[in-house]
Amino acid sequence: MVFSKVLINWYLRNKRELPWRKTSDPYRIWLSEIMLQQTRIAQGLPYYLRFINAFPSVFDLAKAKQEQVLKLWQGLGYYSRARNLHESAKYVADELNGVFPGSYKELKKLKGVGDYTAAAVASISYNEPVAVVDGNVYRVLSRFFDVDTPINSTSGIKEFRALAEELLDKEDPATFNQAIMEFGALQCKPQNPLCETCPLNLACLALKKDKIKDLPVKLKKTKIKKRYFNYLVVYSEENKTLLQQRTGKGIWNGLYEFPLIETEKPVSDKAFLSEENLKEILGEQKMSLQLHNKKPVVHRLSHQHIYTHFWWVKAERVGGEGIPVKQVKNYPVPVLIANFIEETGLETYSV
C-alpha cells in the first residue's frame, strides 16, 4: 500500500466542492487558509464569500479601512488574524505590486503566515513540495503510525513535520496536502471516526491496538484566567451612546465596545454603583443605572473566561464623543457585544 496514493484516491472520490479548490490563485488560497485557522469550514465559508465579494483582489483588501475588515470578520474570533491579513495585503499590494511571494520561504515573511499557511499556499498555488501539518494531519498520522509524542511539544512538532515530509507526494503535493487534511476532517474525525469504511484501516496501528480515542496526545493547557467585565450601555436624551475602541496587545484590539469597568472579582450591585470609574467616564451629572443581567454572560476564549454584566445608564448627556444609537451596527464589535445588541434591539432604542 502506498499511503499517498490511497489518500489521493480517497480525496478525488470524496472531497467537498469548495470555492478555493477551484483556483490556484495565491490570494484566494491565502485568504481561505487564514480564515480557516481554528475555524470549521461550515462557519468560515460564508465569511470567505463575503470577503471575496467585498475584496475581489489583494488591492481591494489593501485599500480597505481596518474597521471595514474587522466588521466583515466580526464573529470569527482571533481578530489578530484579520489585522495581520490586512497588513499583509497592504505589503503585497504596495511593495510587491500585487504579486504574492512565490515560495514557502518567502511566504513565511508575510505577517501572520506561519509554517502551515506558507506550506498550504506554496503547495496548492505553486505545487512546491512542502508538507502541511495542521490538526487534521496530526490526527491522521498519530493514529495510523501510533505516535504518542504530544503534538504541541517541541519534539512532537519536529517529529510530525518530518513524517509528513517523508510521506508527501513530491509529484503532486497540492493534491496530497489537500487530501490528508480532508481525510482528517471527514474520515479520521476527532470523535467517532469512520474506521469501518476507512481505506487505511488494515494498516492503522491505533485501530489494531484499540487506541483511536487516545490519539493524538496533547499537553494540557495552561490555567484559564477569569476576568470580570462590566459594560456601561449609556443612552442620553439625544439618543446617543458611547463606544470606545480597544487598543494595546490584549484581546479584541481594534474592535469597539461600550465603556468598560473591569473588576478583580464579582461585585455586588451596591459596590459597583460606588465605583469611582463611573464618575470618570460620565462626569458629574444626574444618571440612573439598572443592571441588565443578574446572571453574568460567560464568554469563553481559549485562554480566558470573561464574566460580563451589562448596565443600562440613562444620562442627560454622554461623555466623550457620543454616537447616534442607530449607528452602533456600523462598528466592528466583539461577538459578546454583537449578541447583546441583537438581543436587546439597541439599534432601535429610544429614550
Q: Any chance you could write out the topology, listing elements then pairs?
A:
Layout: H1 3-14, H2 26-35, H3 41-54, H4 58-63, H5 66-73, H6 80-95, H7 104-107, H8 115-126, H9 135-145, H10 154-167, H11 173-186, H12 205-208, E1 225-236, E2 240-241, E3 244-245, E4 256-257, E5 260-263, H13 269-273, H14 276-282, E6 287-291, E7 297-300, E8 304-315, E9 323-324, H15 335-344
Parallel strand pairs: 1-8
Antiparallel strand pairs: 1-5, 2-9, 3-4, 6-8, 7-8
Helix pairs in contact: 1-11, 2-3, 2-8, 8-11, 9-11
Description:
- With 351 residues, the chain is α+β, with helices and mostly antiparallel strands.
- It has 2 domains: 3-214, Hypothetical protein, domain 2 (Endonuclease III, domain 1), CATH 1.10.340.30; 225-348, Nucleoside Triphosphate Pyrophosphohydrolase (Alpha-Beta Complex), CATH 3.90.79.
- Helices cover 42% and strands 13% of the residues.
- It is built from 15 helices and 9 strands.
- Strands 1, 5, 6, 7 and 8 form a 5-stranded mixed sheet that branches. The protein has a two-stranded antiparallel sheet with strand order 2-9.
- The longest helix is centred in the first third of the chain and has 16 residues, at 80-95.
- The chain is elongated, with a radius of gyration of 24 Å.
- The chain starts with a helix and ends in a 7-residue tail after the last helix.
- The model has no long low-confidence stretch (mean pLDDT 92).
